[in-house]
Write a structure and sequence with these properties.
Blueprint lengths: L1 E3 L5 H7 L5 E6 L2 E13 L1 H8 L13 E14 L1 H6 L16 H10 L3 H9 L20 H7 L8 H15 L3 E3 L2 H11 L16 H4 L4 E5 L2 E8 L5 H14 L7 E5 L4 H8 L2 H5 L2 H4 E5 H10 L9 H7 L1 E2 L2
Parallel strand pairs: 7-8, 8-9
Antiparallel strand pairs: 1-4, 2-3, 3-4, 5-6, 6-7, 9-10
Helix pairs in contact: 7-14
Length: 323
């Protein structure tokens, strides 16, 4: 457990913390530990009981913003590593309780996998390369149409979007309605001229939409979910598992398969992530299936000329249990 002062500066930062978030404990210029937020509370009575409101030169108030840290892992790296990874200036220093901005987090997870594995690779002295773009436009070309003419058809479509479209079609052939995040719908409409999505993720389902509406593909029908898919190509597998954990916590009595859809090369990374205490507690080793791109392509090819006859059990049968 850790506590912070209930100040105007700390309160909004505390409000942004959520179960599953990473937290770094920094002492001086060294990152000592990395853990996960398990829970949080604002509790003056608990603060007094834990720390007896230890007197200091600044205040005799308690540390009422209390957060519980799960699975702390030793890091012992200089804080300069965080400056480098999150593109802070060399002069940036921590001042008490701080958050990394959403913009910097988004940029980080577009380039790297989960934070702990990157820190460990840094600790071992490995050179960390950022993920490459899907394709590079030749420098001598400034006309986008000319560049596309020289590329094989379809190469400008991301693997994520292509896989999303295949899962949409398979969902329709299984007789389900399909939901994808609203931020992705326009891309599918533009690229594939299809837009018959569920209007709202939570239509008929009593769950707060903001926690789960960004799951990549959901097969559903009114009050039931038939299957949920997270496509992990350039993003961290951990982010998809977190969305699944939100869904299972919000709807714990629902029984439907959860699929991580990723290249075969990411299988070991999924095995590594599924061992985290947060996901072990949710029994994700049995509930989450690994569905390689290669298998989705096989199923898509097999049912290419069919309009029916597919159900979710076909995908379950071809997927791999992670336990």
């Amino acid at each position: 457990m850790w506590g912070s002062r209930d100040s105007k500066a700390n309160k909004p930062r505390f409000a942004r913390m959520n179960p599953g978030d990473d937290i770094l404990i920094v002492e001086g210029g060294t990152i000592k530990l990395l853990g996960k937020i398990a829970a949080k509370t604002i509790n003056p009575d608990l603060s007094r009981e834990l720390w007896k409101n230890i007197k200091d030169t600044d205040s005799e108030e308690g540390w009422n913003l209390i957060y519980f840290i799960a699975n702390p892992l030793e890091v012992d790296l200089p804080f300069s590593v965080i400056r480098e990874l999150f593109d802070y200036s060399t002069e940036y220093t921590l001042r008490g309780f701080s958050n990394i901005s959403d913009a910097k987090l988004k940029e980080f997870y577009e380039q790297y996998d989960d934070l702990y594995s990157i820190l460990q690779r840094k600790k071992m002295g490995e050179l960390i390369e950022k993920k490459k773009d899907i394709f590079e436009i030749p420098e001598e070309k400034d006309d986008v149409s000319k560049v596309r003419e020289e590329m094989p058809e379809g190469e400008t479509i991301s693997e994520h979007l292509s896989m999303q479209w295949k899962l949409i079609q398979l969902g329709m052939k299984s007789g389900s309605k399909v939901w994808i995040p609203k931020s992705d719908q326009q891309q599918i409409i533009s690229q594939y001229e299809y837009g018959d999505f569920e209007k709202e993720f939570t239509a008929g389902i009593d769950v707060p939409a903001k926690y789960v509406e960004n799951i990549d593909v959901v097969w559903k029908e009114e009050f039931r979910i038939d299957a949920a898919f997270e496509i992990e190509n350039t993003t961290a597998i951990y982010s998809g598992l977190l969305r699944f954990s939100d869904l299972k916590i919000i709807a714990p009595n629902s029984n439907y398969p959860l699929f991580i859809v990723a290249p075969q090369s990411k299988r070991n990374r999924l095995l590594e992530q599924i061992k985290r205490p947060t996901f072990r507690r949710l029994d994700f080793g049995n509930k989450v299936k690994f569905l390689p791109y290669e298998i989705v392509n096989d199923i898509d090819n097999f049912f290419k000329n069919s309009v029916s006859g597919l159900n979710v059990d076909v995908l379950v049968g071809r997927s791999e249990s992670i336990n």
